[in-house]
Amino acid sequence: SAVYAGLVLLSAPPGGGVNVRRGTRPVGEMLLRKLPGVSASGMGLRLSQKFVFLLFISGLVTLCFGALFFLPDSVRLKRIFLSKSESPAVTAVSEHGAREQPRNAAGEPEHPRRPSVSYEARTAGRAREERSRARAEPGGRARDHHDHHDAAARADRDAGFSGQSRDAFDYGKLKKCLFKPPLGSDGGQPSDPQARERRDKVKEMMKFAWENYRRYAWGKNELRPLTRNGHIGNMFGGLRGASIVDSLDTLYIMGLTQEFEEAKEWVENNLDLNSNGEASLFEVNIRYVGGLLSAYYLTGAEVFKKKVVELGEKLLPAFNTPTGIPRGVINLGSGTSWSWGWASAGSSILAEFGTLHLEFVHLTELSGNPVFTEKVMNIRKVLNKIEKPHGLYPNFLSPVSGNWVQHHVSIGGLGDSFYEYLIKSYLMSDKTDEEAKKMYYSAMDAIEANLVQKSPGGLTYIAEWRGGILDHKMGHLACFSGGMVGIGADDGELTKRQHYLDLAAEITHTCHESYSPTKLGPEAFRFDAGAEATATRLSDRYYILRPEVIESYMYMWRLTHDPKYRQWGWEAVEALEHHCRVEAGFSGIRDVYATTVSHDNMQQSFFLSETLKYLYLLFSDDDLLSLEDWVFNTEAHPLPIIRRNCPPEKIE
Ligand code: DMJ
Q: Kind of enzyme, top EC level (predicted)?
């Protein structure tokens, strides 16, 4: 190598008798010939010439050392020169986006190495050392309770929840540290008889949807209720049973015990993670990873933990890009990943790579393996570095250059759950993740300054932004934002808290307005050419059993206890029963304005995981999956707030 040649040259005996040769000519001689006024023997150098020569050699050495950072992690030289603790904790981000991912002989991206045992042991060891050092410090105990950035916490973060091996996650401690039992004091049974009756109705709907799935589509991803068969689709690669995994926690909280046991047994014996096929990283994460995590946290059954960590590891190759921003599609069998064909210029989608944080942090908690958290923290790092037009986050980003590809901004599809995960990351960290908090509230400022609008009829809505031009439309997906702005209200600036709560209520009201006349809402609605929250295009009039509007009702109910939210939720129940219930399940409809209903023959898995769960929670007492203890992922799977220290009153 050049370093080696340089070192040999420096130690060459007079006369240039070096032993590194290219052909028959000594390398030292060849180099010295290039320097004007220097004889090939290298003797008789003037001081200035020696200086220039040394400068050249030291530049070369620095260059070669710097180049180590660009080598794949597996290269031996790198491991010798840079111990793991010194190397960047995340997939390396080159300043110039120049680093290519390691590829195998066939030119396909290499599978990431499983972190070696010695690395895990080293990290855990470091964590233990740091913990005992922190505790030995005077005043350390008091700080333990209050300073979330102390050495012990840092060490815990590095090594996972326990700082021990991957099997050491302390489920008992987690349960003890909750403020409320997950199912509340009485399964969330409401004292109000009307709410109880309505909740029972929702439970019956879940039972009906489940039984039909079980009868006609068992093991497939979704039920086709009109044709009474199963649907596989192309979102989950070779994975199957999306409706089963998505339903686990809903069945559990509703007390549908036998159904839950069947679902659990299927996961144990039939959920095959070694499957090939194109899977959406985002969909697999929110439905499968989210569903399995919740099932584990609610029940403590090891099978869910084992499966979810295994699945999480299979998602990691998607992050092998020059920036560490994952690509959207992954083959879980081969680890090959690529971008969606429809995404402009091979870009990754904000709502996809921005909706991994909650699940990946929990994968680290359960496995003790920091790699999951490192991957999502790197996404943050890239996003924080890049300039944002008017403080806004466009929806398309190149995983190669780390630059925005298009200036389309939306709080609906393509952008939505990125914002949701910022505030939820903060809440899930027990309000210690200040970076997420800052990002969320700055994004909110930009959204309010550029996108929030009032219609001529007085409805508040969030428009889309295309390179500075507003598109006065809101998607059904964007209606989750009522709930999001609501749960973020309390931690905003003191002077803005009431404003956020008002904004949340106004958005939820607008979305409710879009739910007419069938009391079900279109996929997108507009506020131009005289439209007031109505779909003006035929192609926007469908409703596929989506949850977002009901999700906002649920949060707004919990935050305000204004009875109108329960009333609006009940309207939706009646409309679902009337328009979407068919003989063998529930189906989406093609036109929410049509008098004669036309069904789309699909019972989406998110109907079971989200729509029915949010309705059930809306009619339950607040202590069922209390917001003090749980944060819902974007597929409504509850994940516990991570407490480094138990609330004082819970310490025995
Ligand atoms: C769900 O899979 C999730 O809520 C996701 O964030 C958006 N789309 C669907 C429901 O509409």
A: hydrolase
